[in-house]
Amino acid sequence: xxxxxxxxxxxxxxxxxxxxxxxxxxxxxxxxxxxxxxxxxxxxxxxxxxxxxxxxxxxxxxxxxxxxxxxxxxxxxxxxxxxxxxxxxxxxxxxxxxxxxxxxxxxxxxxxxxxxxxxxxxxxxxxxxxxxxxxxxxxxxxxxxxxxxxxxxxxxxxxxxxxxxxxxxxxxxxxxxxxxxxxxxxxxxxxxxxxxxxxxxxxxxxxxxxxxxxxxxxxxxxxxxxxxxxxxxxxxxxxxxxxxxxxxxxxxxxxxxxxxxxxxxxxxxxxxxxxxxxxxxxxxxxxxxxxxxxxxxxxxxxxxxxxxxxxxxxxxxxxxxxxxxxxxxxxxxxxxxxxxxxxxxxxxxxxxxxxxxxxxxxxxxxxxxxxxxxxxxxxxxxxxxxxxxxxxxxxxxxxxxxxxxxxxxxxxxxxxxxxxxxxxxxxxxxxxxxxxxxxxxxxxxxxxxxxxxxxxxxxxxxxxxxxxxxxxxxxxxxxxxxxxxxxxxxxxxx
Amino acid sequence: xxxxxxxxxxxxxxxxxxxxxxxxxxxxxxxxxxxxxxxxxxxxxxxxxxxxxxxxxxxxxxxxxxxxxxxxxxxxxxxxxxxxxxxxxxxxxxxxxxxxxxxxxxxxxxxxxxxxxxxxxxxxxxxxxxxxxxxxxxxxxxxxxxxxxxxxxxxxxxxxxxxxxxxxxxxxxx
Lengths: 494, 174
Prior knowledge:
The complex is a heterodimer of chains A (494) and B (174). Chain A has 494 residues and is an all-alpha fold.
């Protein structure tokens, strides 16, 4: 059992007091940013990217993974207790969770969300443990044409398939690619769009783009458009589940995990599809009075399933990130940026070149899941208090942290002006419903995809047919076409 | 901006995208096309992105002039995020907060600059919430609160994480 051995070594690395502390702080911070409106895991990790210059790679990846993970737990608390749906990932949880909370069952909803997240997270982590090394071994054999097609698939789904409008998604993607162009060309080393500014040779910092688009734009949107809105909070009841709640939740968790996990594995991310799918399945499978609860008093299956699906997707999304170096969401894109700050390029070689780091990271997921269960079940009352922070102070406080992230990266006051400019861009994008994920993913993945494309064409001696001659890349191109065409065909039929 | 129609605003956005496309294309002229074995050089992706943006801009412009952007979220839907009338004075306060911070951070140090940024931004947000002008007293409270947040943040990041942030003095504490 080679995998077991390596996992044990991972536990040994992740289990040192200092690394446990990083994991704990990450989980706690992640839960906090998940609970707080206006700031999510992507923003939090981006703001803290400057620590990559000081903290060693293993510790900071454990820390970031804790934030990534904790935010999923915290997000469900907010969507159950507040009447304003947060991000898309917790929107489905909000549908039934809110109804349950209104009829006095907030505690049961929170409990099934937390335990469901734990169950799904742990099962998905086992899948990462078992499958990631296998995928990595296989991925070594992929050449540039296949990589380019995989990246094309990731870029296509994030911009053209998810979201409301393909045109606006593509606009965002091209803006992201344009930002990614700034700096030195990876293959020839030629400077592009730097305008002679030496700082721009390394490209635009991802911190600036992510923090500007998410945190600053969010604050500007709040001050401009959300002034007079009021939100009501549901009452918290005792966090426990009855025997019947358990009976109804357990199958829903498992079904949710089964639906969510495969979606994370393919580089065609987003948690929207699996969570909605899980919700639909639970609604369909429920019988009699349980089905009648959907949309009325709130059915516990409708919280348990999607919440498990969400966590399973988020966890298995680490497989394409670690083994292929392909991010499929904002947060994984920023995690990839964190790896790059250490000069580490995630990909098939990661498992052979940095085994300590990878296995410590995977072990920390197991540890983090347990920590989060403890942090969330008995202490939920504490986190709920965070919702009492008044909005003006909350958003202003976020701006202070945004300053730390943007300034701390390069010690340049000009970056703060850029941060504001990107914030205004994000505000316009939000106002006109342009998705932001394609910008971040495009900016990170663009240069990598370009390098693979040019290497692929070099292999094919300049002929584009190289993509059609290799069976694997041909198949992947077929998948790209399918994800572009299928939703349209389905929509026409409905 | 209240006088502008949706059509004008959306057209402005589309023209902004078009301007970006033109800018990228203009910059791409100077990038070498030295291709090596690949047949495409460093200028391939810039041109692709520029042309892509131009096409998207054209479609957006067409949409804006034929009934507006497609599939926009319905502001009247019951689960739509609430949107109130824009509060431009609050926006100005927050913009000022951020730009002032950029101008002052290396001069008066992280703590004071961020506290000021906090106070101005909170002022704008409270104005947006209540729709009234805010008094001096709440501004002072925010300033103190800003100090109480910025100072520990500064110490935490500079002392524990060794990230360099600008101070007013060389002591490392202010």
